[in-house]
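Why should sequence recovery work at all? Because a backbone constrains its sequence more than one might expect. Tight turns favour small or flexible residues, buried strands favour hydrophobic ones, and helices have their own preferences. The token representation captures these environments compactly. In the example below, the structure is given first.
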């Protein structure tokens, strides 16, 4: 961020999105305190989207099908998957918003521990939030301003992408909160 960016006021219509973002991130920060590795990788169902070590070495394996959010049922996700998805997805979009436009899925190795996963997620969330805070009204109206190639970014004005990314944060934060609650409830009911 340059001194010009810091001096420029944030567009009024972006303020509400940044306030919502900051609130969800603050609650998510509180809700992830004390997260254990067991909880991070816990699979709440027999078929679960998760992250696994690669037996051949290299990048960890991310298990998920290509799934359009249509309302059709999808498998539940582990906290590891939700944090990896948020961290990598938002970091990639930040790169296409204010970075080198070079990040790919292969740029990320989704973590297998709670500490690393939490840092990974919050680093991505911060990159997007910091980049977004430098945008102008003109940027918000520019079709393709976020040129991330893995979505509709090249076809929509940035303000529509802001809506989408905020929805992703809210959705997957709720996944993380719910899986933590479910994990705790199953431990209480089994006496573990």
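From this structural description, the recovered sequence reads:
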């Amino acid at each position: 961020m340059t001194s010009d960016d810091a001096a420029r006021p944030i567009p009024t219509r972006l303020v509400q999105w940044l306030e919502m973002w900051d609130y969800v991130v603050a609650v998510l920060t509180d809700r992830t305190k004390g997260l254990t590795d067991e909880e991070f990788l816990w699979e709440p169902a027999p078929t679960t989207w998760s992250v696994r070590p690669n037996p051949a070495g290299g990048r960890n394996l991310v298990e998920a099908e290509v799934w359009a959010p249509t309302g059709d049922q999808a498998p539940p996700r582990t906290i590891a998957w939700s944090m990896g998805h948020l961290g990598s997805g938002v970091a990639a979009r930040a790169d296409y918003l204010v970075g080198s436009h070079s990040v790919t899925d292969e740029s990320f190795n989704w973590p297998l521990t709670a500490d690393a996963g939490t840092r990974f997620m919050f680093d991505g969330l911060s990159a997007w939030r910091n980049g977004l805070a430098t945008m102008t009204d003109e940027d918000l109206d520019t079709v393709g301003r976020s040129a991330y190639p893995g979505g509709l970014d090249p076809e929509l004005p940035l303000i529509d992408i802001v809506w989408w990314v905020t929805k992703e944060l809210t959705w997957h934060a709720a996944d993380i909160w719910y899986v933590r609650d479910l994990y705790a409830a199953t431990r209480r009911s089994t006496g573990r």
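A few observations help interpret the result. Residues 12-53+74-190 form a domain with the Four Helix Bundle (Hemerythrin (Met), subunit A) fold (CATH 1.20.120.450).
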